[in-house]
From TrEMBL:
Its EC number is 2.7.7.60. Pathway: Isoprenoid biosynthesis; isopentenyl diphosphate biosynthesis via DXP pathway; isopentenyl diphosphate from 1-deoxy-D-xylulose 5-phosphate: step 2/6. Pfam families: IspD (PF01128). The record marks R19, K26 as: Transition state stabilizer. It comes from Prevotella fusca JCM 17724. The record marks R158, K212 as: Positions MEP for the nucleophilic attack. The keyword Magnesium does not apply. Catalyzes the formation of 4-diphosphocytidyl-2-C-methyl-D-erythritol from CTP and 2-C-methyl-D-erythritol 4-phosphate (MEP). This is 2-C-methyl-D-erythritol 4-phosphate cytidylyltransferase. The lineage of its organism: Bacteria, Pseudomonadati, Bacteroidota, Bacteroidia, Bacteroidales.
Amino acid sequence: MSHKTSKYAIIVAGGKGLRMGADIPKQFLPVGGKPVLMHTISRFHAYDKDLKVILVLPKEQQDYWQELCEQYHFNEEYQLADGGASRFQSCKNGLSMIPADTVGLVGIHDGVRPFVSCETIARCFDTAQEAKAVIPVLPVTDTLRFTGDSPSGRNVQRSDYKAVQTPQVFDIQLIKKAYEQEEKADFTDDASVVEHLGQTVTMVEGNRENIKITTPFDLKVAEVLVIHNS
């Protein structure tokens, strides 16, 4: 691959709008002294200061985000794209900010995963240079029970399963083409969208700290991780 290829990260921050009485969306909650989303953006620039970041945020949250950026003196570079009605639409909006003829790689990452390691990001981008579609995964440590075919369910071999994380990294032209498809219910992540084109997805090792912050418990874990990482 030539050195003229571009590298992007699309950080998707969904969550409900800031309606009166609604909780503050998870990506704006402070962890270790600053909002989750700022940690996430900073992590990608720590991996590569020249990486182009596109932040996808619901339109009704953008003013609040700008206020937070001023309050926390957050001035890292990124482009802002409007969130869509679904994650699929949000990703599509983010991808549309990348010029049509761009050659290179793009990582798509959950805004509420602020502890992805630079090593994990590097593994995904490095592998994607050849593989074109890469996801970080971890072994499943809990016992799993399948409940689809009976009320009582049955245990399944956890060695048959992996827990999938982000960033999921793709060849830009491939992922742009994939997102031209109609949205389908079985598109559960970006990898499933490119798999629908017949593209093989390659797995690399993720990192255990790369948790998705979705519950109050996760926030408590996040506070510990911030201290551990500082």
